[in-house]
Design goal:
By secondary structure, the protein is of the alpha+beta class. The chain contains 3 helices and 22 strands. Strands 1, 2, 17, 18, 19 and 22 form a 6-stranded antiparallel sheet that branches. Strands 3-12-15-14-13-16 form a 6-stranded antiparallel β-barrel. The relative contact order is 0.20.
Amino acid sequence: MRARKRLPLLLLSAALLLSAGCASGRSYAPGQVQILETDGLGKKTTYRLQEMVPTEVSRTATLTVNESWQLIRSVRTGSAECRLERICVTKGQEVQAGDPVAILRGTGSTADAELKKLELSAFSSGQAEMLAWYSSQIAAAEALPEETEAQQRRRSLQLEYARLEYRKYQLQSDYTLKTMRDQVAELEAAAGEIVLTAPVSGSIHNLSSRYAEGDLLPPGTELCTVYGSEGLRFYGSSGSGTFVYGREVEISVQKGGRRISFPGRVVSSPEVLNELYPTNVILLEVDATEQDLPSNAGEASVTYTVLSDVFAVPKTSISTRDGISCVEVLIGDTVCTRNVVRGPAAGSLVSILHGLSQGDQVVVSSYNS
C-alpha cells in the first residue's frame, strides 16, 4: 500500500525535473556534440545537435547524356501561301546567322494595295472637308443672338449639339482611317518581298529540290536545314520532373584524364514535347565553347531550390509515432519529443513546415556508451 502511494510522488517528481530541464534554455553551437550522463544507469549518451536556422532546401539530380554535335534549325515559310522567287544558297554552303537563304513573294495583288491607297487618300480629303463643315456649324451656333433668356437657351443647346457632332464624326472617321491604313499595310505585305534568313551560323543541309523558282509554296514549307556551328546539343532519356524546360544545367564530359564542365539549358523535355524526339527525351543545349569536346557520353546535373527560408533536418532525425512525425529537441539538459509537420524532401534533408523555431537544438544522432 505504501509503495502505491509513493509511485505517484515519484512520477510527479520526475515530471517536475523534466519541466525544469526543458526550461533551462541552455544553447549549444551548431553541430556541437553534447555528452549527457544517464542518471542511475552508469552510462552516458552522446548527442549530435543541429541548430535551427532558415535555409534553402535544394534538389540535385544527374542525367547521363549522349552528345549531338550540331545544332539543327529548319528554314520554313510562314503561315501564308507564297511564291518562290530565288534560292540564295547551295547545299553544304557555310552561312552566318542572318544571311539570306531564299527570296519569296506574297501572293497578294499590288493593284489591290494601290486601290486601297487611293481610297485612303480620298477618305482623308473627305474627312478634312467634313471637319471644316462641322466647324462652320459650331461657328454659326456661336453667332446666334442671346438677348433674351430663350435665345440664350437655344444658342447654348445648338452650340453643345454642334460640338458633339463634330467630336462624334472625328472619332468615327479617325477609326476608319486607322482601319484603312492597316488594310494597306496587310495588302502591301501580302504582295511584298519576303526574305528568309539563316537562323544560326553553320552549313546548309537538306536543301529542297522539290520547288523551282516561280512555284507556289504551301504554308510552313521547309526549304532547308542549317547545321549550326555555334552551339551543341546533348540528350538523355531520363530525368523527367527535374530536367524541365528552361532550367539551367551543368554539363561535363571526360577528356583524357580530366573532366570539362560548361553551362547549358534544357530546350525540350516531356513537359514541352518536341516532335523530333520521343516523349521521354531530355534535350540540352549549350552555347559555343572553345573546348574541343570528345564524342563520348557525359553527365548533366541540375540543382534547384524546392523551398527557401525554411527549417530542414536530416531524414534520419525524424521518427513516426501513431502516424505523427516527430523529432527530438534538446532543451537544457533534457531531450524532449516535438511533433512536427513535414514538407518536401530533397536528398537527405526534409523541410519542416511547423513545429520548430529558430535556435532549437534538434538531435540528429545519438549513441550510448
